[in-house]
Known about the structure:
Strand content: 15-25%
Strand order of the largest sheet: 1-3-4-5-6-2
Number of helices: 6
CATH superfamily: SMI1/KNR4-like
CATH class: Alpha Beta
Helix content: 25-40%
Number of domains: 1
Mean pLDDT: 96
Radius of gyration: 16 Å
Low-confidence stretches: none
CATH topology: SMI1/KNR4-like
Order of helices and strands: HHHEHEEEEEHEEH
Amino acid sequence: MNAPAYWLNFKQKLETKFPFFRNKLNPGAAIAEIESLEHKIQETLPESFINLYLENNGETEDAHGYIFGLKLLPLTEINLELEGWNTIIDHGLEGLNDFCESRPDGAIKCIYASRKWLPFLYDWGGNHIGIDFDPGIAGKRGQIINFGRDEDIKYVFAESFEKFLDRICSLLDRTDDICLGEDDHYSFRGSHFTDALKELSAEEHA
């Protein structure tokens, strides 16, 4: 299996633009680790996701947010995040679903958390971008969404993991929108990346 071309392209562009990101990704995961994750969530992972993680099992601890300031989670941390969300679900979501919304309407189930949302990006503040394996009636299985502690309004950022990789690769080409901050941190338009993607979504549907 080969890593997705979009991912290889993204890495090359990022590490050329910001050389301090070189050697900030972990070696590939073992296939047994990926199969264990599939067993945990009872879902078949997208081929593009599998191939990316066979190439790079998330980022190193000192990478400072490889994906526009968000952490690409290693599989061990994905498992820990899943366990944390499942504990929240087990304690009940009463009251937590009340303010949840979907953009577009009906694409994402209006709930606070789901066992079928797989986080792969993290902002160190309890919020994620992840894969939605149980979409709303107007959504698509495998779509990429935001969710987490501060994310009542959830957006579809891409129809699939592969299309999300294509999108972040394209955004990296928008040189005027790329901002370099302190501590080897870069961002899109100087914003939290989830907020930037929300703004882009609003612009696209205006």
